[in-house]
Each structure stands twice: as structure tokens, then as C-alpha cells.
Amino acid sequence: MERNGDVPEHFFNTYYYHRYKSRAFLLVLQKHYSSRQLLLSLVLVLLLSRSVISNDDEQREQTCNNDGNSDGTCFIDPPLDAKYAGESKSYFPSNYFLPVPVRAIRQETHDTKILTFGLPKSRTLGIPISSAILMSVPPPTSTTTKSKAMMRPYNPIHIEQQGSFELLIKIYPDGIAGQYVDSLQVGDMVNFKQTKTNIKKPPLQYPFPKGVSQITMLAGGTGIAPMYQALVPLLKQNQNQHDQEIRLLYGNKTPHDILLKKELDELAKIYPNRFTVTYIVGDDAHDTRQYANSMYDVVTGWIDSEKIQQLGFPPTTGNSSIVWVCGVDAMYTSLAGSRMKSLTEDSILYKLGYRDETVWRS
After folding, report:
1. What average pLDDT values come out for the chain (362 residues) when binned by 10 residues?
2. Which end of the chain is more exposed for a tag (fewer CB within 10 A), N or C?
3. Where are the beta strands (DSSP E) in the chain?
């Protein structure tokens, strides 16, 4: 049947292209109905779709109201086909980014910030301890070429608390991710997800293997983040395991670059028999400067063979004493030979008697 002249053809093409993405369905309608009947049908469809959208908005608003967040933040539910990387269902899926709001920003050091992100009031991150999440970093607005968003992994701290999580992020002036993070303000929405590659495999996944009674943590800079993430549950949830001890050797350039110092000192105060921390500072391996400020009880230089022998746990014949390393590439090279490959015979840890099964690298 021919189209009636009082209904423009572009009405059918434009409307159906946007509403149904197919001309075939429209042709079927034109074949069986007059133009006026078709118009009435399309108007009815439009009204019904507006009703559905309205109901969806009401349902979403209801979800926001029931969330319990006083600031009225609306948290978007993951799609029905969302997948998850870990065995337990974390808040962030692996195949979709979900936006969460920035709740607070704290300047930790001159070039490092701690950002608090919101979650639904009754939710935690739900991620396995010793794992990271991916932040979506949009391309700079000043770029003249087409570029996609980048993904940057970060190890959250305080992941056990409900309604929020925190990231410790170093701001590199020339880094795109650093510039983006530095520009964030309270209320901004940031996208995250978690993939399988962000979850450490055993033995680095908490709870650690039975029989591990001594852990020597060797951290540098922001490498403290995954260790602190594990430190809190290790000490708090295993209070009856008095035989498990942790010694942290934490390296930075200067005392003012030490991250999470207040939190680490508090843990050492609460668990003096199980946790000790030594701050090691220096611009180079032979830095011998003296720091007069008594609030900084530090050892100078870099983390080396002598300091590990003096301040860490010695290797054992079994796997009861392990070393956990996290820092910059040069740190992995000197201590273990590399970050991913087997220990090299010229590496510090190998010469001290440690072997692959007793050295963990984040």
C-alpha cells in the first residue's frame, strides 16, 4: 500500500532509525496499516516508551534514596551481563566501568594525594586482598589527535570499610594520569573496573599460605600501597597468631616523602610484638645525611644487603620466612634481578640465601 501524502517520508525514516534501528519493521507496518493508523500506533509507542523511561527514572531515584548516602549520590547498578574477576562478587565488574564520586582529597606529601571515593553505604569494594582496580583516565582535553581513555591500576587502601575506599596516588607532573588525578575535585565522578590481571595469584593472595611465620616487606615509594592493604587484615584479623611477625623496610628519598607514616606508626604501636617498621631514606645508596628532626627516626641510604640482614628476617630452609618486594624497577633489579623472572644469582636476595619460592613481587 502506498504511503499517504500527508505523512512525510522522512518522518518514518528518522523516527524509526533512532527508535528501532531498522527500516524493515517500518515497511511491514506500511504494508498492513494506513498512514493514520500508523501515526496513531507510533504515537502510542512513543507514549509507552516515555512511561517506561519515567518508571525507570523513578526506580533509579528510589534506589538512590534507599542507598543511605546523605549527599544524594546515585550509584549506577552494573548491567545484567556484568562479569567479575574474582571468586567473590566485587563492586566493580570486569567488563564494564562503573562511576563513583570523589568524596574527599587529602594531600599526603608534596607530590602524593589520598583520594576517598564513595560506595553505596552498605557496600565494601569486595576485592581480594593484594589486588588492584583499574581507573579510566580520559585523554587530555588539549590533545589535537584522537586518543582513547587510558587505564591505570591502583592498589586501594582501607578496602575493608563500608561506603568508601581510598587510593594513594603519586602525582607525576608530566604524566597524563597524574594531571587527571590532580585536577579532580570533590563531587567528580571517576570510572573503575577490575580485571583478572589486577588480582594477585597465590601465594601473594591473602590469606597467605600456612606455615609463613615471618614476612620481610621491602617497599619503595608508592609500593607501600599493596603492602599496607594486606598489613591491616594481617594484623587485625590474625591477632591470635602471635607467631606471625612482619618487618617492614620502607625506602624513600627524604623523610618528607614517607607515605602513610602516621598509619604505619600506629600499627607498630598497637602490635609492637608483631610489626616493626624502619624508614630508610636517601637520594643514593651512600647517602649519609643526618636528619636533626627527632620525629623522623630513619636509616640513611638505600635498601641493600646489609640492611636486610640487620633489619629483616633471615631465610629459612622451609618457606616460613618470605620476602615481599614492591617498588620501582631499579629496586626489583637490584634486589631480585627483575620484577617477573626468576631470581638471578647476582641479585641481593639470592646472595642472601632466598629463592624464588620465598620471594614475592607485586
Report:
1. 41 39 49 61 54 39 47 80 84 94 96 95 88 93 73 91 94 89 96 91 75 93 94 77 83 94 96 95 83 69 95 89 94 94 95 93 88
2. N
3. 98-109, 112-118, 133-137, 150-154, 156-157, 164-170, 189-193, 214-220, 245-252, 275-281, 298-300, 321-326, 359-361
